[in-house]
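Problem: given the chain below (130 residues), write out its structure.
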Amino acid sequence: MTNGIQIIHPDQRSASTAQTSGMKREAAISPELTGSQTIWVGLVTTPAGMDGGWHHHGDCESAIYVVSGRARFRWGKNGEHIAEVSAGDFLAVPPNEIHHEEALGDEPFVMVVARGCANTITVNVEGPQT
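Solution.
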């Protein structure tokens, strides 16, 4: 670790962070990589046509920026809330909100995720029976 600004190049991101089926998380800003204490930031990719597993992030608040692709997000007690998002959209995900995303179209769904906690907490769960 160094003092001051740190640059994390694509080949330095770490996939040894918490994972969910159908998605690939790569940490960029984390305690292990940068010594961060209050945030986690990474790149998350869901391949075209793939559903990510149902999950939540514990007490961590999450902010998402969609870099490319399109996806359908589902959330709520029975997965009853549905929204489609695409490049340029932001999402705010409150703590403990169970959700999942499905990549739509022919290209991967890519997003930058920032969490208001230093460790990426991911709790994979069974999805609602819809």
